[in-house]
Amino acid sequence: MKDIGKHVLEKIKEEGVKPYPKWHFVIRQAFVWTFFGLAIFLGGMATGVAIFQLRHIEWDIYQHITHSLFEFLLLAAPYFWIAFIVLFAGFACYYFRKTEKGYKFSTLFVAGISFFLSMILGGILAVTVLPGKLDTAFEDNLEFYRWVEAHRHQMWMAPERGFLAGTIKSVSSEDRLEIEDLNGHLWQVVISEAVFKGNIEPVKNQRIKLIGHMDGRGQFTAKEIRPFSGICPEDERCCRSGRKPGQGRRFHGQANPDCPFGPPDNKN
Amino acid sequence: MNCHLNNITDEALLALSEHDQDSFYALMKRYEKKLFAYIRRMTPMSREDAEDILQEVYIKVYKHQKGFDPDLKFSSWIYRITHNEVVNMLRKRKIRSGTVSIDNTESDSGAFLALLADTMDIQETYISEERGVKIRKALFHLPEKYREVLVLRYFEEKSYGEIGDILKIPQGTVATMVNRAKKRFEKASRQLNLTFQERQQ
């Protein structure tokens, strides 16, 4: 066997091989931790939007829209964001395993921790306006997102059962709207008796959901108008206090007299 | 080589290596035989190829010396680099287990079988050279991931913790893989008619 050590020393001398500086390794680890943190943050953001969507689905009327809670959950689950949560948990797991000591932990443990951290961060972000803004931005700008999310709204396309969703095409008068439903059909909607739930104002291009009854082909009378993204308990409180819904054309800062939750509480 | 270097730890020798060639040379000499044997056990390749890999390993050790994690044993670190280098070489050359003839009859096959026999509760008193060849054949019939844990556990006599550090996998996974590898080895050795001496009554 040849003297390998001697050969190596000669090669080091001839080729001027130098050890990598310490900062080379520090920066590499810093990058790995940064990517791990980024994956957790994005996973947290996805969790935040998923929580936002879950809070805004119509829990109060699920038994009218679907046959069971299970069917409702299957239809309304935020699959898009769940997929992102899993994806980013996977990235976080991958980068954690790339850290110096990351290999010592089992994949299941690391995946669990990554998922847990995303959940915690998502829970914190869910109380901010960020997830709602992100959801709206995606809805407004991404055709693909609208296509993926369509299943969550399709259960509202049942006018014969009193559920309709679509975009306001024109506001004919105080009591009448024209909307284009999710399948592209036009509807004349009477809103004179409608209760506005959540923070919503009937203006052109606003997407809304309606509860009421079908009067005939292309004719619908709304009893309730909801934001397209749904309402959450906070929105219901707004309705009770008459504050936010009143910002629109119907209530002018007064308590909503038609609010099905009754008159506003004094403590509000 | 200076005699005083014999009493210095691997970690200290590494720290001196950048400015002291003798220290690095001493470190290389300390691991030369072990790593050379390890490479040969992991891959059915010629001596020259194994020497080339070892050279590359030492160059990498020299280049990456400042990235050495002091929480790790130096031997685990240098075995990890060697393991990675072997895997890279295998990928490059696309050598797969079982595709290269095993003509090496190193006596360490006997030691391996004896160690394996202990843990399998099989008493082995004599292992022929022919059997040694069969053992190596059986070993090279195993998938790479099982072969590497058996080699590290029974040839290199590394603990589960050290194997975990070398292969960068959790200790629990090492234990599972060693058990699976032993079962696979038994099966492979049976297929190759590698019969163990009957258990003593």
Description:
- The complex is a heterodimer of chains A (268) and B (201).
- Chain A has 9 helices and 6 strands.
- Chain A folds into 2 domains: 22-147, no CATH class; 157-247, Nucleic acid-binding proteins (OB fold (Dihydrolipoamide Acetyltransferase, E2P), Beta Barrel).
- The radius of gyration of chain A is 27 Å and the shape is elongated.
- With 268 residues, chain A is an alpha/beta fold.
- With 201 residues, chain B is mostly helical.
- Chain B is built from 9 helices and no strands.
- The model of chain B is unreliable at 97-108, 118-126 and 196-201 (pLDDT under 50).
- The A-B interface holds A 1-2, 4-9, 11-12, 17-22, 24-25, 100-101, 103-106 and B 17-18, 21, 24-25, 28-29, 32, 36, 47, 51, 54-55, 58-59, 62-67, 69, 71, 164, 168-173.
Instruction: Give the strand order of the largest sheet of chain A, numbering strands 1, 2, ... along the chain.
Output: 1-2-3-6-5
Order of helices and strands of chain B: HHHHHHHHH
Mean pLDDT of chain B: 79
Largest sheet of chain B: none
Mean pLDDT reading of chain A = 82
**H/I helix tally of chain B:** 9
Are there runs of chain B of 5+ residues with pLDDT below 50, and where?
97-108, 118-126, 196-201
Strand content of chain A: 15-25%
Shape of chain A: elongated
Helicity range of chain B: 55-70%
- Assembly form of the protein: heterodimer
Largest sheet of chain A: 5 strands, mixed, barrel
Considering DSSP H and I runs of 4 or more, what fraction of the residues of chain A is helical?
Answer: 40-55%
